From TrEMBL:
Annotated coiled-coil segments of the chain: none
Residue spans crossing the bilayer: none
Gene: LOC119634726
Pfam family, one: SPARC_Ca_bdg
Keyword Calcium found: yes
Protein name: SPARC isoform X2
Keywords, ordered alphabetically: Calcium, Disulfide bond, Extracellular matrix, Glycoprotein, Secreted, Signal
Lineage: Eukaryota, Metazoa, Ecdysozoa, Arthropoda, Hexapoda
Principal subcellular localisation of the protein: secreted
Domain Follistatin-like: 87-109
Subcellular localization, as worded in the UniProt entry: Secreted
Molecular-function annotations in GO: calcium ion binding; collagen binding; extracellular matrix binding
Signal peptide: 1-21
Length: 307
């Protein structure tokens, strides 16, 4: 073996760790006279060069893969930015309360301040026969008393609720004759509300089917309307309607229909403060056999309240 072979090998090994050694190695290769090499020495150098080329290729592939990964991550950040979700979007606080953040924790607190109302039509009458400026003020007061916070005017206001819309006034007495005719008028009113919502395309698909059936089948006219409204009022789907759940149908009508309050009271036949579908149908003058309870189908969609 030529005298320079060990020097060349040592130089090439060192060159993998030292850039300056690599440059010196290249200078050495340039000084060599390839014509002085025998075949075994030429093969050795060929293999050595091939090995270095493979290493260079591998290194280039690694750099390319790293750059591709970094580019992909950058594109993902641009196309799919991280969106911070407001914790309050996942919490429902109910009437008289609003959601506030305590650090990163969402909490329901009493409404700090209600809008000042000057329109007399915004006033409401409570179950204590007191006129309040607005529904907001009633719900706020109930919350303040429920949480024993400053601003609670009386502990019993924990149970304060709206009896009807408008200023409190002396209710006209519902006569016996008026009460006899009221179920018929109530049946007609429920059907007309259902029809009006259907014409405005404000009913869900299942409600629309019930309304269409009521239009084409007179035997289903009143019963479908009764079932629709009873299922609509049963917000907690416990197969009964509570006094609280009657609010959407009671509050708007008390000032207009002096018989609505005693009528709804009469629907609770067993006085358990719950109205079943059979009780609802009975006070409307409908037979139990005509009441086809379809709340499961109806409540798969979001129901509509009164129009």
């Amino acid at each position: 073996m030529k005298w320079w072979m060990p020097v060349l090998v040592l130089s090439l090994l060192v060159s993998t760790h030292n850039v300056q050694a690599e440059e010196e190695d290249m200078d050495l290769m340039d000084d060599l006279n390839i014509s002085d090499l025998d075949e075994s020495e030429e093969e050795f150098l060929r293999l050595l060069e091939e090995n270095n080329l493979n290493k260079d290729l591998q290194r280039e592939n690694e750099i390319a893969a790293k750059m591709a990964a970094e580019l992909s991550a950058l594109q993902n950040n641009v196309l799919n930015p991280v969106v911070e979700i407001d914790p309050c979007e996942k919490i429902h606080c109910g009437a008289g309360r609003v959601c506030q953040l305590d650090g990163m924790e969402a909490k329901c607190v009493c409404i700090p301040e209600c809008p000042e109302e000057t329109d007399l039509r915004r006033r409401v009458c409570t179950n204590k026969n007191e006129t309040w400026p607005s529904d907001c003020s009633v719900y706020q007061q109930r919350c303040l008393c429920d949480t024993k916070a400053d601003g609670c005017l009386a502990p019993l206001n924990t149970h304060l609720h709206i009896d009807y819309y408008g200023e409190c006034h002396e209710q006209k007495t519902c006569s016996e004759e008026d009460m006899k005719d009221f179920p018929r008028r109530m049946r007609d009113w429920l059907f007309n509300v259902m029809r009006d919502l259907a014409e405005r395309d404000e009913l869900t698909e299942h409600y629309m089917q019930m309304e269409l059936e009521a239009e084409t089948n007179m035997t289903r006219r009143w019963s479908n309307a009764a079932v629709w409204k009873w299922c609509d009022l049963d917000g907690d789907t416990d197969r009964s309607v509570s006094r609280h759940e009657l609010f959407p149908i009671r509050a708007p009508l008390v000032s207009l229909e002096h018989c609505i309050a005693p009528f709804l009271e009469s629907c609770d036949a067993n006085k358990d403060h719950r109205i079943t579908l059979i009780e609802w149908g009975a006070c409307l003058g409908l037979e139990a056999d005509d009441l086809n309870e379809r709340c499961d189908d109806i409540q798969k969609s979001v129901p509509q309240l009164l129009g």
